[in-house]
Amino acid sequence: MGKPRDRREYVRVSVNLPTNPKVAGLNSASAGWLYVCGLCWAGDNLTDGRLTPRIVERIAGVPARWTKALIAAGLWHPVGHDCGACAQPPAGQVVIHDYLQHQRSKSDATKAKSDGQAAAIARWGADRYAEGNADRIPKGIPKGIAGRIPKGI
Predict the structure, then answer these.
(1) Where are the alpha helices (DSSP H) in the chain?
(2) How many CB atoms sit inside 10 A of residue 60's CB?
(3) pLDDT digits (tens, 9 = 90+) for 14-36
(4) Residues 6+ apart with CB under 8 A from 94
(5) Are strands 50-51 and 76-77 parallel, antiparallel or unpaired?
(6) Contact assessment for residue 97 and residue 74, using Cβ atoms and an 8 Å cutoff
(7) What mean pLDDT, rounded, does the chain reach?
(8) Position 144 pLDDT exceeds 60
(9) Helix and strand tally (H, E) in the chain?
(10) Which end of the chain has the smaller Cβ count within 10 Å, N or C?
(11) What are the φ/ψ torsions at residue 41 (nearest 5 degrees)?
């Protein structure tokens, strides 16, 4: 049997991110780190690229001036931006430019997780899958398996 799949959420980062003209033009490792932390925070929280800058600044350990640099470079968009490709963020938030062109959406991530859970139930049976995973059994369990789920789950 193969190695179990890692259940953490991931984001895609291109190997040329450090030399991307927008990132390289920032001339700051702190701004680049803030950008990467923003990608990770949005991916972990399944926000479709929306984030509150103050939260990510604290995670990255950088001052607010680097948020302004990311906005000026067009990597993050504030409320009222004119980029036709990106949605408007709610008040007090920004949206990462082109996030959904490179990252999974919340709906895609949720569907993949649900599909994986249903496949595990179909393959291993609800009893075996349920051990330690009672809170993770998805709705719509395949027919023939639902009757084998122990009471209380």
Answers:
(1) 21-24, 29-45, 53-60, 65-73, 99-102, 106-124, 126-130
(2) 21
(3) 999 999 999 999 989 999 999 99
(4) 50, 51, 53, 67, 70, 71, 76, 77, 78
(5) unpaired
(6) yes
(7) 85
(8) no
(9) 7, 3
(10) N
(11) -65, -45
Q: Are 93 and 52 in contact (CB under 8 A)?
A: yes
Sign of CA dihedral 25, 58, 62, 77: positive
Report the 10 Å Cβ neighbour count for 141: 18
Sorted by sequence, the CB contacts under 8 Å of residue 14 that are 6+ apart come out as 20, 102
pLDDT of residue 53: 98
HSE-up (13 A, CA, CB side) for residue 85: 11
The secondary structure of the chain in percent helix, strand, coil, rounded to multiples of 5, reads 50, 5, 45
Tokens 């968009």 belong to residue: 77
pLDDT, tens only, 44-85: 999 999 999 999 999 999 999 999 999 999 999 999 999 999
